[in-house]
Amino acid sequence: MKQNYIDRLTALEKQSNLRKIPQAVPQGQVNLSSNDYLGIAADLRLKTEFLESQNLAELNFTAASSRLLTGNCSEYDRLEKLIAQAYQRESCLVFNSGYHANIGILPALAGSRDLIIADKLVHASIIDGLQLSKAEIRRYRHQHYDHLESLLQKYRDDYEQVFIVTESIFSMDGDLANLPTLVRLKKQYKAFLYVDEAHALGVSGTQGLGLSEHDDLMQDIDFIVGTFGKALASVGAFVVCDTVFKNYLINTSRSFIFTTALPSINLAWTVFIFEKMLKMTERRKQLEQLCIDFSECLNIPYQSHIIPVIIGGNNEAVRVAERLREEGFYILPIRHPTVPEGTARLRISLYAGLQIGELNKLINQLTAHDAKMD
After folding, report:
1. Looking at residues 293-310, what average pLDDT do you find?
2. What domain range is 236 assigned to?
3. How far is CA 189 from CA 151, 157, 162, 173, in A?
4. What is the pTM assigned to this prediction?
């Protein structure tokens, strides 16, 4: 009965693993737990320009039904065409969130005669999508492409279709997938390649289209998924793919079919900011240099704007995060089971507009903690 759940919550609390919804970031603190990588969310100039450029009377704050009923609008068409053109691909389909995309695309495409092989550390939303699929599921060791190839060699001929699934920039470690190797393997073994660019969109590539653009592989990846809720400071997500797959998803993806559409005002903002994002070259350069400098100060190899500082146990990670918040840095600890046991961490997300001098106190605190642990 209810006592079972009380006992489970008590156990979580004893493990320093009880989640609570935090209050808004206290005023004056440096927010290093946000996904606002380009600093767009706090850019009042962009908000003002958007509002002045729109006929707000024509935009709605609700869609009131799904796109397949009466919820579609011209802003959806504008956004999907804009994204497809940017990626130089046939089609784009917008979803309500990255979670909606990842739980809806693979279960719709992969059936009982198919195989999905996913990196061991893909995001929870992808894992949920795998579990909803009727396909056979196998996982390869994180970034171990020899292991992936051994699975392809062993199982490819047993299945009608095979899907290789990865993130481009991994959300917890900030490390980068080797997309050229994945493209080579997908071609060699006649598989589909599904890449979640959630944490690379806006940041990587000349136009901010992600690691697929940076590596010049946008034409070689079958399904590129991106989200508007991080660097683009909006809401929703998308997949770029061939038209046949878009049409198939419209007819079979449950998370697309059975959900109320996004309001037109949100879509209009996304169109506006996506066009701006394509030209934010200087913000991307500034962010990259900040990340290089910060990583160097901590003696951590630079990989991306997501910088994990491994603490170890859940209890210690919570204590360090609390101490840093007292020093003016809003950093939330990431604990097991979100990350493997013993690797609880501070996941530091840097953003454009932040200066390295603003992080000196944080750097000193973290280096002092490392020295103490040694």
Report:
1. 93
2. 59-277
3. 11, 9, 9, 28
4. 0.94
